[in-house]
């Protein structure tokens, strides 16, 4: 096990290895959400560099346990085991998130959707919207006076 993985999160028994070969996850297509609770975010520096973590917003707390538990992320036909931490006032995915971010080649600016498929065993289905997937007109998005409009 790489000692640098998850070093900025509480230690635990998080399984850091994906369960399937890496090639197939890249072919995951975007599908409609199922109606279960979900979280969306744009990938930022802390998601793909130290401390390699995802912080949950307070509005998502009611769907999450009040204790630290193992979590499974599912993307394509692969799964990753990691740790959900709720120490103090922060709730986050940490130990194991680094592996997921590296294995799926997440980049700053990508979009992520985490849909909570099983709240008892904490299973999230992940969809990744790669940066550049949404077409942008050259004059849009350069300032707050020229926003990008997505229909």
Automatic annotation (TrEMBL):
Primary localization class, coarse: nucleus
Biased composition (Basic and acidic residues): 1-10
Disordered: annotated span: 1-27
Domain of life, per lineage: Eukaryota
UniProt keyword Transmembrane helix present: no
Ranges where the TF-B3 domain occurs: 39-132
InterPro entries named among the record's database cross-references: B3_DNA-bd, DNA-bd_pseudobarrel_sf, REM16-like
UniProt GO cellular component terms: nucleus
GO-annotated molecular function: DNA binding
Keyword list, A-Z: DNA-binding, Nucleus, Transcription, Transcription regulation
Cellular localisation: Nucleus
Protein's recorded name: (wild Malaysian banana) hypothetical protein
